[in-house]
Amino acid sequence: MTALPNSPAPGSDAPAPPAPRGFWRRVRHHLAELALTLPSCGWMIVFFLIPSVLLFTLSFHPTATDGGIGEGWTLETWRTLANPDYPSIVWRTIWLSLVSTLICIVISVPCAFAMSRAPAIRRHVLVGLVILPFWTSFLIRVFAWKILLHPDGVIRGFLMDLAIIRPDQQLLYNPVAVLLVMVYTYLPFAMLPLYAAAEKFDFNLIEAALDLGATPLRAFAKVFIPGIRAGLFSATLMVLIPAFGSYVIPDMVGGANSEMVGSKIAQRAIPDRNLPHASALAALLMLGVLAPPFIGWAVLRRRNIGVTETEAVAAAGDSRVVHKGGVA
């Protein structure tokens, strides 16, 4: 057996050869990547991780008699979440967030498809129209909807003239008004990531599906929508997460009968000065907000692992076939 060049003979005390240059190049590359991620990691630690830990810690403190944070530890703030009013508020928050997200996705998918198929100049105009609401203050836009839905507003008068609503029906201060304004507010957050995903989609796949006999609707559902699933996932998170924590919209157009968890947190923290109770509600809301991304990540990871294992098994089978066939 011939020894490799620059390698010590077996059993000898010769020093090991120095590490190759490729090793140190990889080390420098990994250190450079680590240095680039340090600012974002530091930002997340300072402005998300540490406040989250303080939030959970604060929820186990009692409330002082004059407001604020008391001494010692207690579970009383978490027991108050069993109040009969809170399940209805939590359920209202969940269904309003889910329904508004679903409506935004249903509207945004065909719009993203049409925008990505439009000529370049028209596409830029459409993207500009999508981002145009961001040029106006969020509070002004919500207040404008409050004026439009007012009992003396234009929309209610128009619907009454068409006999669609009765004179005693109100458009303001109900869950439907909250849902309408949430869809209007968060629609661009769904449309932009879906448009970005649709712009990268290969539309030749749809042409191939049509040539093979698929109807346009079937090609859209079976080819286009699976092809933009990453954009669907991003759009869902971009709408669902802020919708869960929304409190300005239900406070301005929903009223007392349309409270959500976010508005309850603001009420406990500012007028009541019950910071432990507000922290417990915020911790509960944070767990609810973080659950969907982690569930989606786990599902995608399991699916990717399954695809990788299938490809590995297929590759192993191909190698056995090649070996039996005697191909070098």
Portion in helices: over 70%
- CATH class descriptor name of the domain at 84-305: Mainly Alpha
Spatial shape: flat
Count helical runs.
13
- Helices and strands: which structural class? mainly alpha
The end-to-end distance, rounded to whole angstroms, is 25 Å
Determine Rg (CA atoms, Å): 29 Å
What is the architecture of the domain at 84-305 at the second tier of CATH?
Answer: Orthogonal Bundle
Number of strands: 0
CATH H-level superfamily title of the domain at 84-305: MetI-like
Give a short account of the largest sheet: none
Mean pLDDT: 84
Low-confidence spans: none
CATH-assigned fold name of the domain at 84-305: MetI-like fold
Order of helices and strands: HHHHHHHHHHHHH
Which percent range describes the beta-strand content?
A: under 5%
Topology overview:
Elements: H1 21-58, H2 76-79, H3 85-117, H4 120-131, H5 138-148, H6 154-161, H7 175-199, H8 204-211, H9 216-227, H10 229-244, H11 248-254, H12 261-269, H13 275-325
Helix pairs in contact: 1-13, 3-7, 3-10, 5-11, 7-10, 7-11, 8-9, 10-13, 12-13
Task: Give a verbal description of the structure.
The longest helix is centred in the C-terminal third of the chain and has 51 residues, at 275-325. With 328 residues, this protein is mostly helical. It has helices spanning 21-58, 76-79, 85-117, 120-131, 138-148, 154-161, 175-199, 204-211, 216-227, 229-244, 248-254, 261-269, 275-325. It has a domain at 84-305: MetI-like (MetI-like fold). It contains 13 helices and no strands. Helix 7 (175-199) packs across helix 11 (248-254), helix 8 (204-211) packs antiparallel against helix 9 and helix 10 packs antiparallel against helix 13. 71% of the residues lie in helices and 0% in strands. The protein is flat and about 70 Å long. The chain starts with 20 loop residues before the first helix and ends with a helix.
